[in-house]
Amino acid sequence: MSAKRVSTRRTRTALVATGLGVALAFGAGTTAAFADEAPTTLTGTAALVAEQAQAQAATAATAAKAADAAKAAPAAKAVEKTVLWTKPVAGYTLSATFGKGGTMWASKHSGQDFAVPVGTPVHAASAGVVVKAGPNGGGDGPAYGNAIVIKHADKTYSQYAHLSKINVTIGQKVSKNQTIGLSGNTGNSSGPHLHFEIRTTANYGSAINPMSFLRTAGVSI
Fold it and tell me: What DSSP line would sit under 140-192, residue for residue?
């Protein structure tokens, strides 16, 4: 074989090898590129899914809070209504009830009696302004003894009778549960107690059932 043919074969072999190398190189590079792109594409999709899930979770949480707030609103209103009123005395025994008949009253009993010892603190059942205070039932008659009438924001009136002492004056503003006097046995009374009324006006004859009123207002008696 001549030197020229040997040289030609070597050249062809080198070119083939080079071509294979280039092909292999490009093939490997292409494979590597696909390998790099696949995780990147998957990661991007996963990120979008995660973001969507977070957004949905946030929306659900907001909806849940709104639902809780809606449920809590009526309860909050009920609490607000309850705290407007309270019992006029503590440590009592319920005695004569509203509407009871008998010789003790000119008509039927116009309030609820709370039997308590003389000198028991009497509290304003709700905030308001004193419109009557004094002997002779504060103007409602001697049967009530020393008495107080308070006007409240809801246009109702509360009355406290047979007191041994009055601690407020006409025109004075009082707060709920404020001590306005002391229980007693004055006027037409068969024993120490507080006579309590709820009225639609300041005057005798407009009384409504005080127990029903307080219970509707949320007061437990």
Answer: T-GGG-EEEEEEETTS-EEEEEEEEEE---TT-EE-TT-EEEEEB--SS-SSS
**Any residues with CB less than 8 A from the CB of 187 and at least 6 apart, and which?**
137, 142, 143, 144, 145, 146, 147, 161, 162
Cα dihedral across residues 129, 134, 139, 144: positive or negative: positive
- Which residue, 204, 136, 123, 199, is CA-closest to 168? 123
How far is it between the farthest Cα atoms of the chain?
154
Model pLDDT, residue 183? 98
Amino acid at 36: D
- Is residue 176 over pLDDT 50? yes
**Of all helices (H) and strands (E), which one includes residue 77?**
helix 3-82
Q: Which of 109, 152, 193, 195 is catalytic?
A: 193
Residue 197: its H or E element: strand 194-199
Provide φ and ψ at 165, rounded to 5°: -150, 140
* H helix or E strand, kind and range, residue 67: helix 3-82
Residue 193 is a catalytic residue: yes
Task: Tell whether the model's pLDDT for residue 206 goes beyond 90.
Answer: yes
Average pLDDT over the chain reads 79
Contact 87, 214 (CB under 8 A): yes
Element housing 93 (H / E): strand 93-94
